[in-house]
Design goal:
Thiol Ester Dehydrase, Chain A; elongated; 137 residues; mainly beta; 7 strands
């Protein structure tokens, strides 16, 4: 069953725990963790197995992410081989907290970003052994 056009999106809020650096800046590796979760769902949908992440071909960190930001991570399979699945990923900031200094807003003030801000892009390859694929040997 080839579902190369299938797309998966997850959305979650970066917590204070995710803030790793000064000012609540989130480590870029957190975006890669989200891409791993997206890849796992894509593999389950295609192969019926979680598979394994093999390698990233490229990773671009394009904008900062802070604790309190809402991030959507999306991925899609763009190429399938016998066991390999090449995927493209994109993480977008869809909501951001407004710093208190902006107009004296409360700490709980936030804004929906329209359009969302692309914070990270990546291309990677996952592998699902043939024997573990849905209908595998």
């Amino acid at each position: 069953m080839q579902k190369k056009d299938q797309e998966v999106t997850i959305r979650l809020r970066m917590s204070l725990h995710d803030g790793h650096y000064a000012g609540g800046l989130v480590d870029g590796a957190r975006m890669l963790q989200l891409f791993g979760d997206v890849a796992t769902e894509l593999l389950i949908r295609l192969d019926g197995d979680e598979g394994l992440f093999r390698a990233y071909e490229s990773v671009e960190f394009l904008a900062p992410v802070f604790a309190g930001d809402y991030i959507e991570a999306t991925g899609r399979i763009v190429q399938t081989g016998k066991t390999s699945r090449k995927m493209e990923f994109e993480a977008r900031k869809v909501i951001r907290n407004l710093p208190v200094k902006e107009g004296g807003k409360a700490e709980s003030s936030a804004e929906v970003l329209s359009p969302p801000v692309i914070v990270c892009k990546a291309v990677g390859t996952c592998v699902t052994p043939a024997a573990l694929q849905r209908g595998g040997a």
